[in-house]
Amino acid sequence: MNDLSVMSAYGRLEARFGRMAVVEEASAMLGWDQAAVMPEGGAPARGDQLATLAGIAHEMLVAPQTAADLDAAAMAPPADPLARRNLELMRRAHRRATVLPASLVEALAREAAACEAAWRGARREADFAAVKVPLARLLGLVREQAAALSGALGLSPYDALIDAYQPGVTSAEIAPVFARYEAFLRENLPAAEARQRRAPAPGTPPFAEAAQEALCRQLAARAGLDFTAARLDRSLHPFCGGTPSDIRITTRYDEGDFASALMGVLHETGHALYEAGLPKDWARQPLGAAAGMAVHESQSLIIELQAARSDAFLAWLGPRLAEAFGQAAADFAPARLAARLQRVERSFIRVEADEMTYPAHVILRFRLEAAMVAGDLAVADLPGAWNEGMRALLGIVPPDDAKGCLQDIHWYAGLFGYFPSYTLGAMAAAQLMRAARRARPEIDPALGQGDFTPLRDWLRANVHGHGARFGFNELLVEATGKTLDPADFEAHLRARYLD
Amino acid sequence: MNDLSVMSAYGRLEARFGRMAVVEEASAMLGWDQAAVMPEGGAPARGDQLATLAGIAHEMLVAPQTAADLDAAAMAPPADPLARRNLELMRRAHRRATVLPASLVEALAREAAACEAAWRGARREADFAAVKVPLARLLGLVREQAAALSGALGLSPYDALIDAYQPGVTSAEIAPVFARYEAFLRENLPAAEARQRRAPAPGTPPFAEAAQEALCRQLAARAGLDFTAARLDRSLHPFCGGTPSDIRITTRYDEGDFASALMGVLHETGHALYEAGLPKDWARQPLGAAAGMAVHESQSLIIELQAARSDAFLAWLGPRLAEAFGQAAADFAPARLAARLQRVERSFIRVEADEMTYPAHVILRFRLEAAMVAGDLAVADLPGAWNEGMRALLGIVPPDDAKGCLQDIHWYAGLFGYFPSYTLGAMAAAQLMRAARRARPEIDPALGQGDFTPLRDWLRANVHGHGARFGFNELLVEATGKTLDPADFEAHLRARYLD
């Protein structure tokens, strides 16, 4: 029990943000429970619990005393530059939370729930008309939200939405990066498709779930997941949740395909390593949190795409797969593993896309959501614009809207501005990997021995340990010497698919 | 979002207590997670989460507005008698929470943690001296607590402690009930020991864990546990946790003895059925909670001891055990099951005691803790008093304090006043079973078919559905026509062990 009255304004803020973070930790654990183990009967009560805890944390943030302490701390800021950065992050969180009227927050929650429910049916039936009205209503509220945030944050309305997921990145920076990638893809995708190795898929199904799970555990541990402070469980939609000292990753197993769970677990392990490596001295403070969703995605992708799908690692992995599944080593030869794990193919579904075509899916969504938020694209015109965009970017047109604009939950749950983070993260992962390899030449030889240690140590020192000290581009400058440079991602793809 | 300002004072109280209950539900789920699945690294953060949520719920309860609303509601009480009872329960909770100074609450938490830690080592080493000083310090604070509560509640200091676990029962009522049982035991224990059936233990170990677990699930479901709103998992110390719509029971398995997990799960299922059957109309209100720990224990024991260890049920159970473990039906014949599940034997450890000697363990603790709280027994004299009491009650003396006064955590964690609930519950279970059998003669024939439905239906209508509407004795009057009558428990023991 701290005596708040004798503390400095900044000290009181640290105590209050720390308490909010503890409440949010409780919510994170309950969220894991809901997805991984909760019986269905628990759903209504769990909804109440999560809503109440969110309400309690929100009340702490918007309490008049928080504003008063922020004002007082601004007059007498802490001497430590890290504490000043922490104070700045507090101010941002407070500004985002206080600018929206409660009536708008409630309307957004209500309409998002209604739209998401309608979307589930619409996607099942491939019937966009069934969700058109709720999506239009939700978009109207999202545009109100963006306008309100825009004024308070000094950002364009769409940038104010992006800022919620990856602070400090604007659509003006993203647009040319994405345009450049579009050109790269147009020039190189056909060659990549033509040149990639053709081989039968590795191994012969079924791949027993128990063997897959044991393998996932071993590889996650090799990548650096500490199972005295983490669990691996199952859920319909894989995720990384929990708290830095009690990380919960989940996956799902398909006995016909060992690679989806294995790569999925390594992806979530990348997220987990970031959380576990956040600066302990700043635990439960804004500075001790992740730097944003694009940075988070870079950490999952550097483990999954950069490291675990590398030629060096796959050469080591093959014999382990053969042993785990009791099959012949030759069935997991590099060419056959590459046929499954380094394969380029145009397809309709983002979450199933390979690393080369994935950005096209994101670019499409970035452009469409920017237009919707700006009021330049009406909901009624979304399916046509989607199909036109797919034709322009990948040369394919989905057979129906379930494989088109109905595939992702994001917009139908009110989440606009998230999508760019996926591709910014993929590009940052390539850039970080290049810098890491330069600094630690032993990274690839180690991966060839199934050893992630040198890579993980570099990431811990150059990314994880910084927490939210730096913005997206600042962090890249610290770690790689330059802001986001899509050339590194292109070089990675050239090396893997074109050379 | 209710608009609190236009609600009645009582309406505001319902909203506030409802919100507190939701926070307590979150804590209950986190408590299950901690015991059942949490990796060890999560312990410190989990401690913070539970402490913070407890603090938040406590703040809501002791907020000045709660006191103001309680005063206003007292002037304009609700018309519905159930709502008036709910208001009375709110007032009691508020009084208990506000009477203790914060400094005492903090000192109790601190000294209890220190004493519990010292106790773990002391028990391991059978060294009472190692915990004497911390226990004396803790007892001093408990006596302060009891004195403060005593004044506010108009109860004796020890009764004010009992009231926290089973409201409305006093030591003046308990003492003669326990004295009578002591006499009953003196008269009948030797005969029960002499007359009980001798037979080899049922079945042959090992009893595979997977088979035990499947059986536990089947029997819990038969007893009425709805697995769409419940889970069965493992933990070191079995318990029933969670919330009424998401119940979490746990057990542990011993391949050398199938009976401990099986009876343990049925015991926890009894607790679970009570929680699941609480009145939904009063969910998250004090009236919608259990009536106290003695009533709760009566519900676990009526399922485990009264129903599942009955001759009728064991005759049905035998062949199912044989089938589950792939052994001969004759190995689970009634005499052999009775040799394990209806066995009387004096022993040192309460939690391993049979139903006939168990009350002796409780009577000893009741007398000792009453004397300690009254200041009539010094901590230094506890081991001697314990051993003397065991000799007087059961005619045996523990070989060391680990098997004596160090065996239970309760006092060393600051819990005084809990122990009587175990035996009050066992006696109430016998009394309820007798009334249930009279009202529903089909109960025993159904148990003989492995069917708990008639018993469960009676309990739901006569116990579970009342929530906290009645006190302990009032509930017994409603359900059985009389206050606690130890004769029914004696009759049960006579029928099972002496006739």
In short:
The structure is a homodimer of 499-residue chains. Chain A is mainly α. Helices cover 65% and strands 3% of the residues of chain A.
Task: Sum up the structure in keywords.
three-stranded mixed beta sheet, homodimer, 499 residues, Neurolysin, domain 3, 20 helices, mainly alpha
Structure report:
2 copies of one chain form a homodimer. Chain A is mainly α. Chain A has 2 domains: 1-99; 112-225 and 252-499, Neurolysin, domain 3, CATH 1.10.1370. Helices cover 65% and strands 3% of the residues of chain A. Chain A is built from 20 helices and 3 strands. Chain A has helices at 9-36, 43-62, 64-75, 81-99, 102-125, 129-153, 157-165, 171-195, 209-223, 258-277, 293-308, 311-325, 334-341, 358-374, 382-394, 420-439, 443-447, 453-462, 472-480, 486-498; strands at 230-234, 240-243, 246-251. A 3-stranded mixed β-sheet of chain A has the order 1-3-2, with helices on both faces. In chain A, strand 2 and strand 3 form a beta hairpin. In chain A, helix 9 (209-223) runs parallel beside helix 10 and helix 14 packs antiparallel against helix 15 (382-394). The first copy, chain A, is globular, with a radius of gyration of 23 Å. The mean pLDDT of chain A is 96. The interface between A and B is large, with 36 and 36 residues.
